[in-house]
């Protein structure tokens, strides 16, 4: 049965939330009317007196501890003054648990409860908005946990219920961003959701972000990615690039496009777990559509040895190319590739007819009559 790994999903959500707090969200503090600054007061579940709570930020994936507070009589507190609303997080390691909770640091009285499965930060306008969203998402996650642990449900019923909850979670995320895109919470959530959105969704949301936030380095990077994606989106001509094969031969993407086959460009890397997991499916697709489909692997490796070793271990037999520049690869930049595995499907005329297709989506696309590069009625498997 297809069931999501709830622990992994929760860790992913926590990781994304923590990574997103690296960005300073500049805005005039709406809670600083006549107040002298901020005061954070909180509790940590099962913490002992003497445990330490850290106020932290992240820059370039590195945690910086800005302040610390020791728990006394069951509580901790921070005081200070904040000129603008910024995304931060509080962390604490107790004898039984590790907490890391994102919040918005702004002037006013902020109340924090670090409690497993029921964390909260309230008391100021921005945090109240975020907490309402956090509570709704937690409610859905709790329902998913109940489904996952309910042994009385049949596999079919459990999968149907889980799929419904996943859809509700996605809808709730998107609604939260749309509703708050003009404030720090919406911008914060947009960064979390960006990689899950389509280009059209990201462009529509980006246009609504107030100019005062657009000097954010991450938002500026996203804007460049979207511009690249737009130039290489569906129904646009492919853009050529030059790399080297594992043997050191210089090749171009155009060496494979327009040769009577569909071309699937697979951006991957030896260090990418999901890329390696996807290889058996690609190997099967390559065999099933032999003669009508060419796959060209574009590696974002920096270590040529690791790249070549992965090709051999994974049993990859289709053409490979790389410039060994990792994420700095011009090819990844010009195609707006911000996560891997990422695929492009190019027809015999050099037009991009699919982006980021995997699994059933890829095979369904390959089975469409219009996907036959020879112009025959369908693209039958061999």
Please render the helix and strand layout as text.
Layout: H1 6-20, E1 38-44, E2 52-59, E3 62-70, E4 76-80, E5 86-93, E6 98-105, E7 108-114, E8 120-122, H2 125-149, H3 155-180, H4 184-193, H5 199-206, H6 217-231, E9 242-244, E10 250-252, E11 262-268, H7 273-288, E12 293-299, H8 304-314, E13 320-322, H9 330-334, E14 342-346, E15 352-355, H10 359-366
Parallel strand pairs: 1-7, 11-12, 12-13
Antiparallel strand pairs: 1-4, 2-3, 2-5, 5-6, 7-8, 9-10, 11-14, 14-15
Helix pairs in contact: 2-3, 3-4, 5-6
Largest sheet: 5 strands, mixed
Number of helices: 10
Portion in strands = 15-25%
The mean pLDDT is 86
Strand segment count: 15
Pick out the low-confidence regions. 1-34, 375-382
List keywords for this structure.
single chain; 382 residues; alpha+beta; 15 strands; disordered N terminus; disordered C terminus
């Amino acid at each position: 049965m297809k069931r999501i790994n709830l622990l992994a999903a929760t860790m992913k959500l926590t990781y994304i939330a923590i990574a997103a707090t690296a960005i300073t969200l500049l805005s005039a503090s709406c809670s600083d009317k006549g107040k002298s600054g901020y005061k954070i007061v909180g509790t940590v579940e099962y913490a002992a007196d003497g445990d330490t709570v850290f106020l932290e930020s992240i820059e370039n994936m590195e945690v910086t501890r800005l302040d610390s507070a020791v728990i006394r009589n069951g509580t901790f507190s921070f005081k200070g003054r904040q000129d603008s609303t910024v995304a931060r997080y509080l962390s604490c390691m107790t004898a039984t648990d590790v907490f890391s909770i994102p919040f918005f640091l702004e002037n006013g009285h902020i109340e924090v409860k670090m409690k497993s499965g029921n964390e909260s930060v309230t008391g100021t306008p921005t945090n109240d908005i975020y907490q309402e969203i956090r509570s709704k998402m937690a409610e859905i996650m709790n329902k998913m946990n109940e489904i996952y642990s309910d042994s009385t449900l049949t596999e079919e019923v459990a999968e149907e219920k889980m799929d419904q909850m996943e859809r509700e979670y996605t809808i709730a995320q998107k609604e939260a961003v749309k509703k708050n895109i003009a404030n720090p919470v919406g911008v914060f959530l947009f960064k979390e959701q960006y990689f899950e959105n389509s280009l059209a969704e990201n462009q529509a949301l980006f246009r609504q972000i107030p100019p005062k936030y657009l000097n954010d380095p991450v938002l500026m990077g996203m804007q460049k990615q979207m511009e690249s994606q737009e130039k290489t989106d569906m129904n646009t001509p492919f853009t050529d690039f030059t790399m080297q094969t594992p043997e050191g031969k210089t090749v171009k993407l155009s060496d494979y496009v327009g040769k009577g086959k569909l071309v699937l460009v697979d951006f991957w890397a030896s260090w990418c777990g999901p890329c390696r997991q996807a290889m058996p499916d690609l190997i099967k697709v390559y065999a099933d559509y032999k003669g009508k489909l060419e796959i060209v692997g574009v590696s974002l490796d920096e270590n040529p040895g690791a790249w070549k070793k992965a090709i051999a271990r994974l049993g990859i037999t289709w053409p490979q190319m790389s410039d060994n520049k990792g994420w700095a690869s011009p090819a990844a930049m010009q195609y707006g590739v911000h996560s891997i595995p990422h695929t492009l499907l190019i027809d015999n005329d050099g037009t991009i007819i699919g982006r980021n297709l995997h699994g059933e989506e890829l095979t369904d696309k390959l089975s469409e009559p219009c996907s036959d590069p020879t112009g025959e009625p369908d693209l039958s498997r061999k």
